[in-house]
Amino acid sequence: MQRQHSQGIPGTARTRDGRELFFMEHPGPADGGGRATVVFEGGLASPRSYWALVQRAVAGSARAVVYDRSGLGRSAPDPSGRRHLARLADDLGDLLDHLGPGPFVLVGHSWGGPVVRLAAAARPERIAGLVLVDPTDETCDLLFEPSIRRLERVRYRAALLLARLGVFGLLFRKVTAALPPDAAADMRAEAFTVAAVRTMGAEQARVEADLRALLGRPPGLGDLPVTVISATRPTPGMSAQARKAVNESHAYRARQSPRGRHVLARQADHMVPTSEPGVVVTETERLLGAPADRSPEH
Prior knowledge:
AB_hydrolase, catalytic activity, AB_hydrolase_1, disordered C terminus, AB hydrolase-1 domain-containing protein, globular
């Protein structure tokens, strides 16, 4: 008998304009009725595989779902080319529609942080809480510096070249090495292609405009519990001063919720879901009201 994939059972959902989104889910324990469904949202160019360690651990307490945004992994590309934040959030909302009435705990890493905030604000009545994992936040002034846009353009061109040469994935060997073998194989096959890099570029091109839109009209989350996890260890390309500014924006974001919580990941760089998955599991479990497994299996 074929062994089940570490990320669970595959499925597809349709967006409102007919695009197909690929997802995988663990149904959770048989006695998990009444607990929220946990849905994970990745950062720029991050496919579902990136969440394998956290998803598998959380599935011990609740239904846990990972998916690929349009143009990533096994999801159909977006022919419109418009990968702005509101469209990403709408796609996530369409996935939630497919999964059922909720409630949902949304966990977003990096650029996934603004995505889940916007999706939650659209239908807050079905959201049980948010976990923002080292998120991009519009209150960090550093993100609007022209030097950041230049760095993004340089990195995009380099990533595209490396993807064409078939060696882009070598930069992420530490990430894939942390994953279960089947999820690692999926990520190596799907995450470092030219198509995936082009999708990243389409999303990245809108980042500054999307952040300014968030500044002008922050998503209203009411009294939803919001936990923000900050990395603390050095991340390549990020100075100590930049890390301080980013983490200050995280503390601010947590303070905006009457049930906000700011947590430091003491062992993690920006890649928290693979460098310190236990902290994400713990904080997700806290919102679920279940005991946390702090040591996900590799």
